[in-house]
Amino acid sequence: MTAPSPSPLNPNAWEQRYQDGTTHWDLGQPAPAFRTLLAAPDAPLAGSAIALGAGRGHDALYFAHQGFEVTAVDFAPSAIQALGDQAEAAHLPLRRLQRDIFDLVPEYAGQFTYVIEHTCLCAIDPSLRPAYVDLVAELLVPSGELLAVFFTHQRSGGPPFGITPAAVRQLFEPQFDLLTFAPVANSVPARRGEEYWGRFRKRSLGG
Q1: Cα–Cα 20 to 30 A to 21, which of 27, 35, 76, 174?
Q2: What does the pLDDT look like over 174-186, one tens digit per residue?
Q3: Where are the domains of the chain?
């Protein structure tokens, strides 16, 4: 994967948001769609998972509670510290990485059965979206899955940067089979009608 150009949305900028308390993306709980997923009869089997742009780690911690072997990545120090404090308090074995997600390969290439996405794609500069898709594919084992809650709002500006469901599909279809891609039925009130749920499987070479 070709390394993308540095984003102006750097670690210092995101850390300042934590210091200022302007973390509006933080629900203070796991995404409801993930709760629904892991309670479903066809829930994914526990395995190794990496949460990209994990923030304070509500989703990562929830997956760890359900028996997944979770690695959580964020480059804001306050986020990683809060995540670690919660994991220690709950006695959860969870690996934390304070890293730029685009620096994860080749070191972590092909190491995960699942990638967990929630408000990471919408947080990066839109020019980096193709590189993000490449990153997800490279982190996964063959036939690994992306488990994602996409914030598909249509407002201008950002972050969070808007994206349409059609654009999400266009980004991922070349490398993934879209097993599930549908509106989230149980979003929190502030995001109702603005979230799509996706379960995408990495396509095998020649698939």
Answers
A1: 35
A2: 999 999 999 998 7
A3: 46-202
Do 138 and 160 form a contact (C-beta atoms < 8 A)? no
Closest CA to 73 of 40, 43, 104, 47: 104
Residue 182 pLDDT = 93
CATH of 46-202, one of 3.40.800.10, 3.30.70.1150, 3.50.50.60, 3.40.50.150: 3.40.50.150
pTM of structure? 0.84
Tell me how crowded residue 73 is: count the other CB atoms within 10 A of its CB.
25
Query: How is residue 192 written in tokens?
Result: 């109702």
User: pLDDT tens digit string along 103-115?
Assistant: 999 999 999 999 9
Q: Six-digit token pair at 203?
A: 């396509």
What secondary structure letter does DSSP report for 84?
Answer: H
